[in-house]
Amino acid sequence: MNSVGLIFFLNMLVNKGFPKDKLIIHSNIRVLEALRLKAIHFKEGDPMAYAYKARHPEISVSMSTHSMKSISEARENGLDHVFFGHVFESASKKGVRPRSLDEMERAVDMDIPVMAIGGIGQHTIGDLPDGFSGICAISLFMDHNLEEIRAVRRAWYENV
């Protein structure tokens, strides 16, 4: 979807009642600024994330990470939080080894809020080590019904 189509879709979503403050744009600064949103996410190591955060400290800037080095660089460049993963087997990362328990535990000790991503659902959320500031999910929201999503949410709050 191009920027114009995305702006149209997101405006429609907000007009239907979706909270604007819950929207996070993936690396499209034009859409972020056109809609006056407050959060943007970048892929691992994207120097645009660091440059944008330096120029716009009021915007929440996050980045996907897969290593301690990436988490450290994000922290050193003032990013607000990172997504770390994939933490469990994930349909979107077929055949790619998930992070180990040791890697997850080291990630949450990096002095920056860390969100877990990848393979999170009802049967895996209880296996996350303490310290994650939240979870991110794609297939959970795309492939499950509202009651299943609520069950994951309840499990998250029981384990925090």
From TrEMBL:
Pfam families associated with the record: TMP-TENI
Boundaries of every Thiamine phosphate synthase/TenI domain copy: 22-139
CDD domains: TMP_TenI
Keyword Zinc-finger assigned: no
Keywords on record: Thiamine biosynthesis
Pathway it works in: Cofactor biosynthesis; thiamine diphosphate biosynthesis
Keyword Magnesium: no
Domain of life of the source: Bacteria
Entry protein name: Thiamine phosphate synthase
Lineage, uppermost ranks: Bacteria, Bacillati, Bacillota, Bacilli, Bacillales
